[in-house]
Amino acid sequence: MSIPPLMTFQEDFLSGKLITKEYVHFSEIDCPELDIWIGRVVRSISLEFLHEILFTILSELLVNGCKANGKRVFFSEQGLDLWNEKDYARGISLYKDEFGHHRKRVFSSLEKSNYSISLSTIYKEDFIEFRVRNNAKILPEEKNRIVRRVQASTKYKNINDAYRESVDNEESSGLGIVLIHILLRNSGIPNQFFELVTGEDFTEVIIRIPKQLIPKDSQSRIRDLLIREVNSLPPLPAQINKLILIAKKKDVTFQEIATEAEKDPAIAAEIIKIANSPLFGVHKSIVSVFEGVKRIGLKNLESIFLALGAKKILNSRYAKQVLVWTHSFKTSMYVKFLLEEKRKHIQLLETATIAALLHDLGRMVLLSLDLSQVNQIRVLRSDDNTEISEWVEEYTVGTTHSEIGYLISDKWHFPEEILDVIRFHHKPWQCKSRNNILCQIIYLADILANIGKGKGNYFTVEPEVLDYFEIHSEKDFREMQDRFKVKFEEHREEYQNLFI
User: Fold this and answer.
1) pLDDT in tens, 58-88
2) Alpha carbons 11 and 6: distance in angstroms, whole number
3) Taking every annotated instance into account, which residue ranges of this chain make up the domain HDOD (predicted)?
4) What is the pTM of this model?
């Protein structure tokens, strides 16, 4: 089954339509399509942090289903009765060797059989449901083994513990079930969301992902806390607001803005520092505010002043601002590299690089608030606040850093293009304004800038965005990421402390 365009996929999925993929067998060549399919599901419902986990779980279940079907064909070819205990004991070691060393031959035999596996998903009121269905009746031994694996999984804290202790010495399939339960449990999803259903002509594993991990009243209190936090933020400094108003004047001159900026030595110094940064290309150093204002340009000054105002307030209030600004500058530079290399929408270069500086403002609030007072669930916590941890925080809280950032930027009257970028930089397809392409640019640059953290890959990027930027293969994507990384390292020291 080919994957429909993103908007069609999301419309079908969110309307509660059952979406199904059929496989005769599942192998490495099917992984990219599965990756894209899962990506579209999780992006539709803001559960991006589950992408890699779901891919691991579903691919494991599909391979197990394929393996079970192959076993049935193999036993038939060998003249063995699968349901006869003596035949089973005699044939299973032979099949284990066959599948391990001649998997392609097993797959080839499946193509001539009536066996198949299917993967389905459906959007429900309280959860997302995934079903992996095999059109073969499960053997008692297979069912007992799965039950034992489910029970065994409770004693393991992580995958390494499971590997240290052999849980299956017959078919080496037990670790797959253990893996699934550990991943679900460590994602905050309890074991009761895993179900095995059997019938006379099918075997089905059902995984239900709840939309929330804490009660609605607790989640509402967290959202209220976040909204109160945003509402408590002070307005932008008076001098910043004055400079923004001056910059908006139709007949304003560089000298007029520079003269006003020089009244605040801190702002004057920031303008010179930003003008000398890689954001505005490689130039000889300038030393005056007038030259700085001229280099930044009238159309960019409003956004720069907004960024300076945000810096002044947020840096004094939140402990995690260094983490956010560091990533924001990296994304900003990747935006610059992307547009310069592709020569697409080059007229948006300065607007896009500045918008990228501000795209993650909401993360400062979300990462810095102490949410323990409302009994926030503890899942996948990490000492370095990785991107996966952040997605889990958002899943638990019931809101996203994009939504929080939008509230902040709306409070401070950011221009429309930056409001859209902050709100839609993870979902540019939801931006219906003229700023859609701007959101796509920051979306792609943000993912490229995050890959070094082990987050995201070619197959997690929306294919339509890749096509638009003429990235036609995983090789193209990796080579681009490598080029950008080298360029970024060349300039790191020049701007890493620009807003910190």
Assistant:
1) 888 888 888 889 899 999 999 999 899 889 8
2) 9
3) 233-428
4) 0.72
